[in-house]
Predict the structure.
Amino acid sequence: MNKVLVIGAGGVGSVAVHKMAQVHKANADIFPSITLASRRKFKCDAIAESVKARTGVTIATAQVDADDTAATAALIRAIGATHVVNLALPYQDLTIMDACLATGAHYMDTANYEPRDLAKFEYHWQWAYHDRFKDAGLMALLGSGFDPGVTSVFTMWLRKHHFDRIDTLDILDCNGGDHGQAFATNFNPEINIREVTAVARHWENGDWVETPPMAVKQAFDFEAVGPKNMYLMYHEEIESLKTHLPEIRRIRFWMTFGDAYIQHLTVLQNVGMTRIDPVMYEGREIIPLQFLKAVLPEPSSLGETTKGKTNIGVIATGIGKDGHEKTLYLYNICDHEDAYAETGNQAVSYTTGVPAMIGAAMMVTGAWSGAGVFNIEQLDPDPFMAMLMQHGLPWQMKELSGPLAF
């Protein structure tokens, strides 16, 4: 029997286990055993109560320090987990992968590894595990969130069914929600701010092009949201897509931010609160960004007050199956209030937690299999796309007159 251990009790972990329970209720052979673990077990217990109330399904809970490989391996053995779904912090990817190798469990995550003391979002640390997972006969699936995750699946589905070649790809991530706070992040503040303040990079003509953080801004009219300013950023799926689909000449990632967010972030940067190096405070070392995270609203608490929608998708231009150039826009729109009504979480968590559940389902059912380390775009997009339609993230596609004009 497949037994799934989900590590991480934030909003994404909450959505993932709610959706796993829904799937189990419809088909008891999928996710027959679900355990949710975190450093703070009381958070897991609260989520388990919500799952029980909403679905009638009982999930187990446990305490684990995912920074501790031995402790994580001990928990995997104790519950007999066959699959570990890592929804913890990106800093913990490697320790959890090591625990999976030590115990013979398959591995899945939603974001690539990054060191605590270096804001580097790169896959090479995890790709280096390929031979070890292959030799062990185990599968490691990387990046089964929305971006990375769904956007890569979108790209490969377009390539499989509509294009003979993709030349340019733009990934557009718009959160049109309003949580009513002066300043807050919709997912882990530490990870969010590290991403936003990093040097922007995009892939063009076989090389990386760098620009200062938040220096390139363009306006785009998002369906169901309206006109928004979006900023050129680096995101890890650029690295994996340019590796596994090298035909693409240019890949860019854009994310929307409101003016108030930018103003607050600029002040925080100017006063040193986004630093990730230690400073001395009253005789002890603290990391300013970690302190800032502690005083900002917990993202999982924003669901009840967040209104509006997200719109996330890809715009691909290339040579279609008919031999002519075309541009297709494939995207999903998700409503914050609907997500909260279903799972008790806002849409940013929902749009990551649902793909995490689907990626896990692909593995436990055998729809996706293999030995080694795989990015999501290396696998057949069709069953994943079908499950998106069935489990709350319906997608739609339209043809555009041409690529983005900028």
User: Anything to note?
Assistant: The CA atoms of residues 2 and 28 lie 11 Å apart. The radius of gyration is 20 Å. Residues 347-365 form the longest helix (19 residues). The first strand starts at residue 3 and ends at 7.
